[in-house]
Amino acid sequence: MSGDRPTRARVRLAARAGQVAALAGVRLSAWGEGFQVAGRTGRRELALDLAEAWRAADRLGTAIDPLDEALLTRLAGETGKARP
Amino acid sequence: MTGLRAPVRVDVLTGFLGAGKTSLLRRLIAAGALPNTVFLVNEAADFPLDERLIGAIAGEAGVAAGAVDALAGRCVCCAVDSELREGLMALVSARGAGTLPAFDRVVVETSGMADPTPIGATIEADPVLKPRFRFGSVVALADGLNLADTLDTEAEALDQLIAADRILLTKADLAGPDVIDRACATIAAVNPFVPILAVDPKQPPADPWQGMAHHHAAAGKPHAHSHRHSLTAFVVRWPDPVDWATFSTWLSLLLHRHGDKILRLKGLIRVAGEAAAEPVVVQAVRHLVYPPEHLRAGVADDLSGAELAVIARGIDADRLARSFAAFMGLSGTEAAAQLEVLSA
Fold first, then answer.
1. Of B243, B252, B330, the CB nearest to A75
2. How far apart are CA B136 and CA B158, in angstroms?
3. A vs B: CB pairs below 8 A
4. For B258-307, what is each residue's pLDDT tens digit?
5. Would an 8 Å CB–CB cutoff place B202 in contact with chain A?
6. Do A60 and A27 meet the contact criterion of CB atoms below 8 Å apart?
7. Given CB atoms, is B326 within the 8 Å cutoff of chain A?
8. Domain limits of chain A?
């Protein structure tokens, strides 16, 4: 994974995934051809793809479940906020 | 340089013990129905009988005997990280060295007791295989006479039906119409999305991997019951074009958390902002997502949004549909996902 400038599509993808990752208490951003995930303490991990990024999010934040009712409620709260 | 060639398609022939895989492969080779194809034969027995039979036929049909390889003594699902990889790379090397004729397709015949799913996973995950091969489709043979009994006792037979893109019903000529109907109903209860064709042993076989289309999931089918296998098959429909970043976020998180329960997911997606383009087909098996492809023109002209066909175990279909809708809400498309449960 290089530190080359991420493509526009990757930045868009990272922004959307980051919106969800924030609910796990981590910051997810585009990094080269992959992603960077940062926990609250500042610890960071690089990920090649979103599958790796979610695994990193589990380690650095709180595990979230897309089928969890509580998460769906929180997502409903996100709807309508400023969108990337 | 090998990397400059188009990736070789890898198709899979699977089916439980005695379903007739080797017999069909022999007939296909003899009929010349599989041109430019080499075969990887996986035989669970210590003595690779299938390899010898197919090798003999391949020789008669003018195919180099070296075109037939065997993963002898091992089951594909136990050997994917090594033997299958080595087998595929040996074919590439032999082609490069000129000891094997040019080929543009590999057919892997799994052992009767193999789950074919790891074959695709191996190709997609391996950095050496991935540029050279692409996973094609899975044809599963099902014994029309004994299918229900086999499914009750053999988990791998269930995996094979779920993984199949097309099912060929063998021994249909030996079974009466009632038996065939029951076999089709049994398959539909496990995988209501897969087309089923009966094999006619009197007719020369046609290439069973050709003509695969990504059809819409059939709507309004009578519900089947797969309670014996704890499976649910359902379709989630969404009326509007889908933001690709939002869909990717949802699918990746779903498979991350529940991939072990999502046995098969196939999505036809009209992507927002790509109004002129054909919809995209996305396929996932457990934790693995295959590279998305645009559909051929005209296949899904009436698709306005998205359609997800899912086979799962231990997943609440209604909650998955609401999850999809909740994520889509993040991109500003608010609608209700329509859910159709085909078997439960």
1. B330
2. 20
3. 81
4. 999 999 999 999 999 987 788 999 999 998 898 898 887 777 888 999 99
5. no
6. no
7. yes
8. 8-79
